[in-house]
Amino acid sequence: MSKLMISITHSKDNADKATVGFVVANASVASGVETAVWLSVEGVRLAVQGYADDIHEEGFSPLKKLMDDFIAAGGIIWLCSPCVKRRKLDEGKLVKGATIVGGAKAVEFLTTGASCMTY
């Protein structure tokens, strides 16, 4: 099976990149590709309940819908552990399907045949 990691480093600071990252992630998972979204830097904020609810870039579905559809289709959302800690995010208030992991998890995924795109 093919594997793809979508690395998203932005949230409201660049909603276009955050949105397009999830558009591509949805296309990937819908194509039968094992797909993981790696949220790091400001991107980790997207996984906090309610944060993405008002992000809606013209021409795209709302970001919350894109994220919900991605999880429902079997996509994986990983959050960079040090990035979450640095921003003092409440681990108990993450969206369904989001998991905090260390960088080793991303490295393992990438070194077992995954390609990566970054937004």
CATH topology: Hypothetical Protein Ychn, Chain: A
Report the portion of residues in β strands. 15-25%
What does the main sheet amount to?
5 strands, parallel
| General shape | globular
Helical/strand content category: alpha/beta
CATH superfamily: DsrEFH-like
Examine the secondary-structure arrangement and name the CATH architecture: 3-Layer(aba) Sandwich
Structure in words:
The chain is built from four helices and five strands. It is of the alpha/beta class and 119 residues long. It has one domain: DsrEFH-like (Hypothetical Protein Ychn, Chain: A, 3-Layer(aba) Sandwich).
Keywords, please?
Hypothetical Protein Ychn, Chain: A; 119 residues; 21% strand; single chain; globular; alpha/beta
Layout of SSEs?
Blueprint: E1 3-8, H1 15-30, E2 34-39, H2 63-72, E3 76-80, H3 81-86, E4 98-101, H4 103-111, E5 115-118
Parallel strand pairs: 1-2, 1-5, 2-3, 3-4
Helix pairs in contact: 1-2
